[in-house]
Structures are given as C-alpha cells and as structure tokens.
Amino acid sequence: MSNASPFRKRTILVLIAVGVVAMLGFLLTATYGDRFERQRGNTPSPNSRYATGFHALYQLIERSGGDPWLSRGPDDRDDGLLILLPNVRTQPNELLEAMSSHDGPKLIILPKWVAAPQELRPSREERVAMVAPRVLQRLLSSVTRIEPHGEDADARLRYPSGLALRPFRTAEAMQAIEGENLVGLIEAPDGASVLAEVKGANTYILADPDFVNNLGMANRQNAQAAIALLRALDPDNAGVVAFDTMLPFGAGGRNIGQLMFEPPFAGVTIALLAAALLAGIATFTRFGPARREPRALAFGKRALIENIVSLARRAGRTREGGAAFADAIRDWAARRLAMPRTLQGEALDAHLDSLQTATRYAATAAALREAKTETDLLRAAQHLDDWRKEVKA
Asked: Which UniProt key words apply to this protein (predicted)?
C-alpha cells in the first residue's frame, strides 16, 4: 500500500492561491465597496472625464506648475484654495461642514446641468435639464441667500473687482446669481454675478461651471482665464489647490478594514501577511505525504518475523537465537552440498570450514554462538549469511 500524498503538490498550491486571492478580494470589496459605489456614475468631480466633470481643470493646474491634490476630509487640507463641488444631492449641512474645516479661501462651483450617460455611448453624457433655481437656493441656504437666473449667451461680462482676471469666453446661456450678501467679481450686464464673493467669509461662488469644467477647458481662452482666476483668488499660495471629494463622493465611514490597508496600520498588516506566508511555507516543507495508521496485526512474512523478534526481545531471549541460526545454516549447507549423514558436530564444521570461501565458516559461526549483545548478534548473523550466499553461488 502506497504512502504517497492523496493530493498533488500543484493542486494544493493552486487551491491555496485561489483561496488567498478570493479572501483579499472579499476584504477589499467589503472595505472599499461603498467608496467604489459612490464614485460610479457621472457625478461632476475632479476625477470625472465627462463634459460636466473637472478632470481637465485638475490636469491644467498640475501641468501649469501648480500643486493640486484630492482632499478626502479635514485631515488633509493645508494652506491654499479649496474648491468645493456640490451636486444636486448635496445637503446644506454637508456643504457647511466641508467649508468649516478650511481656514483659507474657498471656491464653490455650483451645479448647472442634470446630465446622464448616453445609452449608445456610455463614455459620453447628454444634458437632460438645467438645475432648478430652488435646488441652488436650498444648496446655499447655509452659506447665503441667493436668487439664481439665466443670462443670454451673447451677454458681455464685466470684471469690476480690479483683480487680475482674464476674460472668459461664453458660448451658451449662462447661470448667474444675485444676493444682498454677495459682491460681484464677474458680472452680467444686468448686475447679476457669475463669480461672487460672500462678504466677510473668504468664500467665492462660481455660478456657471461651464467656464472651468471639461467642456469649458476645451477652449484655450477659458483655460488661461481659469489659471488667472485661481491665482487671483489666492495670490499668497498661487497654484496650491485642493479639490474636495467629500461632496461628490461622500466622506464614507472609517472601518476596521480601512485601518488594515491604510497608514499607519498598513505596515502591521503587511507584517502579519508575511508571517502567515512564512508559516505556510514552513508547514508545507516540514510535513511530507500523509502517514497511514499501521494495522494492529500486519500482513506478510516480514510482519510475522517482526512480531517474533518483538516477542523474543520482550522475553529477553534474543541472544539464544544466535546458536539456532548457526545450526540452521549448517544444516542447510549439509543438504545443499549433499554431505553424508555420518558427518555431524565438529566433523561437519571442519568440513564446511575447509570450503574455499572468502568468509571463514568456523570463525563466523563461533562469533554468532558467542554474541552477547544484539549488535554483535546481528553483525555475526550478517557475516554468516554472506558465507551462505557464497556457498549457494
């Protein structure tokens, strides 16, 4: 019966690898699944490449020598301009909370379009409708009171603030706002503000996102005007811009899974995984094929002999087996060589010793009969068996 392992080594390795990958996939999905779900869709964000997204603005700042980054919360907001991107689902208290964690200048870019991915070309989006004025009023209710309305596409904008701004190009109907607590920095002919400052709050509101979103950045004039605008709003930290991602994606909740895969505990996770890998390698190399439990009563002549030896050893009579084995070999040799029955005892021993063999019979048989330990007995028995093989040959 074979003692080989019932599984092939390759099969075991494949099963272990599949199990590890499945476990890591489950952990990552359970840990970051809500974050992935929030980032799906065409919500305007610094990562979105749809027309209403702001990925082009992020790239423009970076390639023009600025230092943009994505801010996931109050802990990673330093000096510089904070750009807030609320959408139609954003609650007023969420906007206020995102603003309160930053002491520097803040730019709120209001939503303008309700858009959805095209059915035949999901990588592109189509406009469904403009955001209703009441939605914008509700959105900014925790910041200031506003009155949104539209402006004609051919309206000539004014720049009364004295800031180092560059003119934007307008191609479509614009969105503007009015309010008692607003100071216009870019105004329409009727005095409504496309870009306004909230008095005493170090906060700016861009009413029309088409000036700086991906659609607007396709125009060189708007790209140059956007860089000038960001520098004018925060001249002390020109080019240092943080894009808030809490409003587009939601802040999400920290859980134990995120603590496992993010600093400062990511090193502990890596160390534990390495220790588990080393333990698995040590286990795999230490243990061989599965060992089967032996039978209480084994089969075969070998098992019978082992049982006899075990009984003799327990009875303390193993040394007496030397003389019996020597007599058995002598009787076998007498029959093998067809010696006369009259040869007995010492005469037979002398005749057998006279045979031309490399191993001397008399000395070997005497050593076997006089052995005192099992080691001497086994050595002498092996020598006598060697003599038997010479005679048999």
From this structure: Membrane, Transmembrane, Transmembrane helix
